[in-house]
Design brief:
Length: 359
């Protein structure tokens, strides 16, 4: 028997698992390792932190199958020479094939105190903690959100709607928030924040963060809660692997998504170096291709000379419960339509995954 180990039950790991289970040969066992016993919809962590959804709305059971086992644990180290995974306080797991889908963590960009004096929405555990902190704030408390990308914008808008009694300030280093989006989208979101009294600090330069204090261009300002959403980097376990990486610390892969010198080790999701912006869609598209490679190998079939391009449908963001923004087929969208589309996509995703959790 051979053991295929999947590290991480996020979007990539979940998609891979559900794609290969119907094609599993009798001699392949799968071990899924994750810190939690569920697949969580990470794109909705902002809503969990803001208090507008609960855990059970964004969690989905992992698939059940006689050849699949689950270990709830945290990966401490990957030993590529010995083909083994070291788990914290849970021993060692050997593998024949390995899928690394450990996701990302906050990138604090060497800002002093940011790692110890801010809250996060990068994991389910940290999102829960952030919710507890935000939920217990007194009326008129001040909240700082550092970073006005998709996560920061969605968190700020959701929090404003659920706790309109708070004073929310959104810090961004650019002249306009959501600078990677078309100007129409950026201006619409800025107008929404202006209307809903969310303060935007543009061209910010966060030099230091102390307990309840944000230093912007060296000037300190008190806040009752500080949340960091200003960028991510690969999981620390992947950072410690001695393999070729790009300038963002993501692992360089072949066209078949495995290491150049090891065809038995694949990387999926935020830790993989790809030519597209990281997203749940990209992770799932990549996972489908890895599944194609594995299934072909199991059947003894020749791999395709060229893997097809992973096509992304677009990006959608929320502004509270009724408004949104996005970019679909290079067309900018604002208002109620993108919010309704996102709700539909989320409902479809949850329904589909729940239907296939048993085999």
């Amino acid at each position: 028997m051979k053991n295929l180990v999947i590290l991480g039950g996020g979007y990539g790991g979940m998609k891979l698992l559900t794609s290969i289970i119907p094609h599993l040969p009798y001699n392949i066992l799968i071990t899924l390792i994750d810190r939690t016993p569920y697949h969580f919809l990470k794109t909705e962590y902002y809503a969990l932190a803001a208090g507008t959804v609960s855990d059970n709305h964004i969690r989905i059971p992992f698939p059940e199958h006689p050849q699949v086992s689950f270990i709830e644990g945290e990966v401490d180290k990957i030993d590529l020479q010995q083909n083994e995974i070291l788990l914290k306080n849970k021993g060692t797991i050997l593998y024949d094939d390995l899928i690394i889908g450990l996701g990302c963590e906050d990138n604090y960009h060497n800002v002093a105190g940011a790692d110890t004096s801010t809250h996060s929405i990068q994991s389910i555990e940290k999102s829960r903690q952030t919710h507890q902190e935000l939920n217990q704030l007194l009326p008129k408390s001040k909240v700082a959100i550092i970073g006005a990308g998709l996560s920061g914008v969605e968190l700020a808008s959701e929090l404003q709607e659920s706790r309109s009694d708070l004073h929310i300030t959104l810090f961004d280093r650019g002249k306009n928030i959501l600078s990677s989006y078309p100007p129409r989208v950026s201006k619409y979101v800025e107008k929404w924040f202006e209307t809903h009294q969310v303060k935007i600090i543009r061209c910010s330069k966060i030099t230091e963060i102390k307990e309840n204090t944000v230093y912007n261009h060296g000037e300190g300002e008190h806040f009752d809660c500080i949340v960091w959403t200003a960028g991510v980097k690969p999981n620390k376990v992947v950072q410690n692997i001695q393999v070729e990486k790009d300038d963002k610390g993501r692992v360089i892969l072949t066209k078949y998504h495995h290491l150049p010198n090891n065809e038995h080790v694949f990387v999926v999701g935020d830790c993989a170096s790809l030519n597209k912006p990281q997203s749940a869609q990209l992770a799932e598209g990549q996972a489908e291709q890895i599944a194609t490679v594995l299934i072909a190998r199991w059947k003894g079939e020749k791999l395709p000379e060229k893997m097809p391009e992973i096509k992304l449908k677009g990006i959608l963001g929320s502004l509270g419960s009724k408004h949104g923004f996005g970019l679909v087929a290079n067309t900018p969208l604002t208002g109620r339509v993108p919010r309704l589309i996102k709700l539909g996509v989320l409902w479809k995703d949850k329904t589909k995954k729940k239907k296939i959790f048993r085999f």
